[in-house]
Design a protein that fits this description.
mainly alpha; elongated
């Protein structure tokens, strides 16, 4: 993975935003890309088997296991709905 300082940002302020630490109240430390998306999918469906309680927990906002948390990767193309 490339260091963030080596990536080309059109606006220098965007680099400052990208370098901000993960918020202390964040549910998950989201990382972009297909590898991270597939790792989350592997964890949620197979490793933890949280998919079994998805219907009951899907609207929960607190904690990383209360829904799949795949929305960012789906929205930005890190993983396709077909894979999920």
């Amino acid at each position: 993975m490339l260091p963030i300082d080596s990536l080309p940002f059109v606006n220098p302020d965007d680099l400052k935003i990208a370098k901000q630490p993960v918020h202390s109240k964040a549910v998950l430390p989201f990382q972009g890309g297909e590898t991270a998306a597939l790792a989350r999918l592997q964890y949620y469906v197979w490793d933890s088997e949280n998919i079994a309680t998805y219907f009951d927990t899907r609207n929960g906002m607190l904690g990383g296991d209360y829904s799949s948390k795949l929305a960012p990767w789906l929205a930005l193309g890190g993983v396709s709905p077909r894979v999920v």
